[in-house]
Amino acid sequence: MLLSFICFLFVTIFAEVGATTNECVISRCGHHGPAIRFPFWLKDSQPDHCGYPGFQLSCTEKHQTMIELPNSVKLLVKKINYKSQEIQVHDPADCLPKQLSDLNLSASPFQFKVKHDHSLQDITLLNCSLPANRGFMRQIPCSSVPGYQVYVVDSYYTLFHDYDNYDLLSCSKMYNISSVPNDIFEHFYLNWSKPICRNCEADGKRCRLKSNSTEPETECFIISKKAQGPMVGSFLLVLVVIMFYRVHCTNKLQRENQIKIEKFLEDYRALKPSRYSFADIKKITNQFQDKLGQGGYGTVYKGKLSNEVLVAVKILSNSKGNGEEFINEVRTMGRIHHVNVVRLVGFCADGFSRALIYEFLPNESLEKFIFSTTIKNRSLGWKKLQDIALGIAKGIEYLHQGCDQRILHFDIKPHNILLDHHLNPKISDFGLAKLCSKEQSTVSMTAARGTMGYIAPEVLSRNFGHVSYKSDVFSFGMLLLEMVGGRKNIDVTVDNTSQLYFPEWAYNHLDQGEELHIRIEKEGDDKIAKQLTIVGLWCIQWYPMDRPPMKAVVQMLEGEGDSLTMPPNPFASTSPT
Ligand SMILES: *[C@@H]1O[C@H](CO)[C@@H](O)[C@H](O)[C@H]1NC(C)=O
Ligand SMILES: *[C@@H]1O[C@H](CO)[C@@H](O)[C@H](O)[C@H]1NC(C)=O
Ligand SMILES: *[C@@H]1O[C@H](CO)[C@@H](O)[C@H](O)[C@H]1NC(C)=O
Ligand SMILES: *[C@@H]1O[C@H](CO)[C@@H](O)[C@H](O)[C@H]1NC(C)=O
Ligand SMILES: *[C@@H]1O[C@H](CO)[C@@H](O)[C@H](O)[C@H]1NC(C)=O
Ligand SMILES: *[C@@H]1O[C@H](CO)[C@@H](O)[C@H](O)[C@H]1NC(C)=O
Ligand SMILES: *[C@@H]1O[C@H](CO)[C@@H](O)[C@H](O)[C@H]1NC(C)=O
Ligand SMILES: *[C@@H]1O[C@H](CO)[C@@H](O)[C@H](O)[C@H]1NC(C)=O
Q1: Cα 77 to chain center, whole Å?
Q2: Which residues contact 143 (CB under 8 A, 6 or more apart)?
Q3: Spatial separation of the C-alpha atoms in residues 334 and 330, rounded to whole Å
C-alpha cells in the first residue's frame, strides 16, 4: 500500500509537470534523437523562454537535431549530456573543412571539449597536386577535386626547416585553424559553461529561466512541486489514480531499465578500444621520448593517456604491408577482457602510420625473470612461479573457450607474457592469432607461425596431426618447462651435454622416481617443481590428441599435484631408438 501511495505521488507529479510546462515540454526531433529540454529549445515550435540564448535547435527533414552556430555553421547534434554539460556534434555533410574556416566559437556559448588531457592543437590544411600521404597527414577526400588533394596536418610540421623533406613541395597552404581538438574530423564534443544547470541536474531537479528578470538567469525547480494538491480528491478518485499509477510505475521501471542499459552501453563503449590520430600518438608518447623496446614488428614507446593511465604504444614498422597483422590484433583484442590478457586501449590507423596502444605493465616480460642469467637475484620463488603458470593457463583457457569465437594465439612464449605490479601474468602480442569457431576442430594454415622452440610439431608438418587449439597447449608446455628449468629448453650456451635438452632430462629424472632438486629454498618447493614439470610434460605430448585441453591444464595446476600421473614419454617417437 505504501508502494501504491508512492506511485500515486509519482502520478500527480507527472500530471503537475505536464500542466505547468506544457509549451516547454521535453521534445525530440526523431525517435533516437537526443531529448531536448532547457537550456536547449526548438526554435520552430517553442517560445524563447523555454531555452537559453544560443541554444536554439531545429529539426532537419531527416529528423536529425541541428544546431546553428555563429557564421551559419550548422552541425548535427548526436548526444546531449545535461549532467556534464556537453554535446556531441558532427558535420551534416561529413565535410567539416568546408565549414571550418567559418567556425568561430567565441561568439557562441560553446567551447571545444577534448578527450583525456589532450590539449587543443593548431592545424593547417594543405592543397596538394601530388599524393603526399604521410603518417602525420590525414586526407580529406570530400574537399579534394580531381588532381588536387586536401590534407590536414598539425601546424607543427609546417614549422620545420626541413619542410621540403616531407615531400610537400606540391602543396600549398590553404588556411590555419587554431585551437581545435585533434579528432575534429570525426565527431567532436562541445561543452558549455553558462548556464550552469549541472547542480540542478545532479540533485534530480531541473533548470529553467527565472520568469521575471531582465538578464537571462536560471533557477532550479523541483519536478514534484505542489504534489499534495490533487490529494484532496475523493476516495474514488484515489482508486482511479492508483490504477493509472500502476501503469506509470511500469513505465517508470521501463525507463529505469532503459537508463541502466544506456549507462552500461556508455561504459562498454569506454572499454572498447578507441581510435587515435597520429597527432594523438605523438602527444601520448610525448614526441616518442621514452623507448621501451624494439623488434621486427616495430618500436614500443611508453606513453600517458592521462595522469593515471600509462600505456605502451607499439608503432608497427611494416605499415607498408597489407596490414593483416594489424587488423588481426585490433580485431582479436578489441573484444576480449580478462585479467590475464593484456588490454588494448586504442589504436591508430592514420595514413601509413599504424599503432596499437596497450595498458602499460611495469615489470616487463616473464622472459626477464626466468632467464635470469645476468641478475641472479631475480628468482621469483616457486609459489610465485606456480601462480604465474596458473594465470597464464587461465588466460589461454579464456582465449580458447571464453569468447564467442575461439582465439588461437600461436605465439605463446615467455617474451609474450607481461607481468603487472603484483606479478600477475598477462598474455600479449596477438599478431599471429587466429579466430575460429568453437566447433571447428582444425585450422587451416598456409605458413608455419610461431617461434622456434615453442612451435607444436603439427604446425611445422601436417604429418603429425591437425593444427588446432592443442598447438597453443604445446607452446604453453614448453613455456612451463622453461619456467621450471630457469633457462631456455634448447640452450646452446650450456656445454654440459647431459643438460642440453631440459624437458627430456626432467622426464628421465621423474620417470626414474628421482627428485628434480632445482633451486630449492623452502619446504614444498620440490613438490611444486614436480607438479609444474609433469603438467608441462603432458602439454608437450607429440600428438595433439594426447595433450590435455587448457581446462584440464588449469585443473592440474590448481590441484595438489600428488595425484598427477606421469605422462607417456613425449620424446619416444622422436628419439631414434
Ligand atoms: C571570432 O568572433 C569574435 C567575436 O565575434 C571576433 O572578435 C574574433 O575576431 C573572431 N575570430 C576569428 C578567428 O575570426
Ligand atoms: C587546390 O588548388 C587548385 C589549384 O589552385 C584549385 O583548383 C582547387 O580548387 C584547390 N582546392 C581547394 C579545395 O581549394
Ligand atoms: C599557419 O601557421 C603556421 C605556423 O603556426 C604559420 O607559419 C603559417 O604562416 C600560417 N599560415 C597561414 C596561411 O596563416
Ligand atoms: C570544457 O572543456 C574544456 C576542455 O576539455 C575544459 O577545459 C573546460 O573546463 C570545460 N568547461 C566546462 C564548463 O566544463
Ligand atoms: C514580475 O513582473 C511584473 C511586472 O514587472 C510584476 O508585476 C510582478 O510582481 C513580478 N513578479 C515577480 C514574482 O517578481
Ligand atoms: C614490479 O614493478 C613495481 C613497480 O614498478 C616494483 O615496485 C616492483 O619491485 C617490481 N617487482 C619486481 C619483482 O621487480
Ligand atoms: C641477493 O639476495 C640476497 C638475499 O635474498 C642478498 O643478501 C644479496 O645481497 C643479494 N645480492 C645482490 C647482488 O643483490
Ligand atoms: C653436468 O651435469 C651433470 C648431471 O646433471 C653433473 O653431474 C655435472 O657436474 C655437470 N657438469 C658441469 C660441468 O656442469
Answers
A1: 25
A2: 95, 97, 98, 125, 150
A3: 5
Tell me the CA–centroid distance for residue 538 and ligand 8, in Å.
Answer: 26
- Which residue, among 115, 111, 96, has the nearest Cα to 280 in the 3D structure? 115
One DSSP character per residue, 259-306 reads HHHHHHHHHHHHHSPEEE-HHHHHHHTTTTT-EEEEETTEEEEEEESS
Question: Which ligand lies nearest the alpha carbon of 111?
Answer: 4
- For the Cβ of 122 lying below 6 angstroms from any atom of ligand 3, the answer is yes
Ligand 3 centroid distance, CA of 174 (Å)? 9
Nearest CA to ligand 6 atom 6: 421
Cell of 460: 611445422
Q: Which ligand is nearest to the CA of 151?
A: 2
pLDDT in tens, 450-506: 777 888 888 887 777 788 899 999 999 999 999 998 877 765 555 555 455 788 888
Please indicate whether residue 150, judged by its CB atom, sits closer than 6 Å to ligand 2. yes
Establish whether 411 is a catalytic residue: yes
8 Å CB contact between 392 and 425: yes
Give me the numbers of helices (H) and strands (E) for the chain, helices first please: 13, 23
For 441, residues 6+ apart whose C-beta sits below 8 A from its C-beta are 466, 468
Q: What is the pLDDT of residues 423-463, one digit of tens each?
A: 899 998 877 777 777 777 777 766 667 777 888 888 887 77
| Nearest residue by C-alpha to atom 8 in ligand 6 | 421
CA-nearest of 260, 227, 263, 259 to 245 is 227
Q: Is the CB of 47 under 6 A from ligand 6?
A: no
**pTM of this prediction?**
0.49
Candidate list 91, 183, 350, 411, residue with the active-site label:
411
Contact 282, 137 (CB under 8 A): no
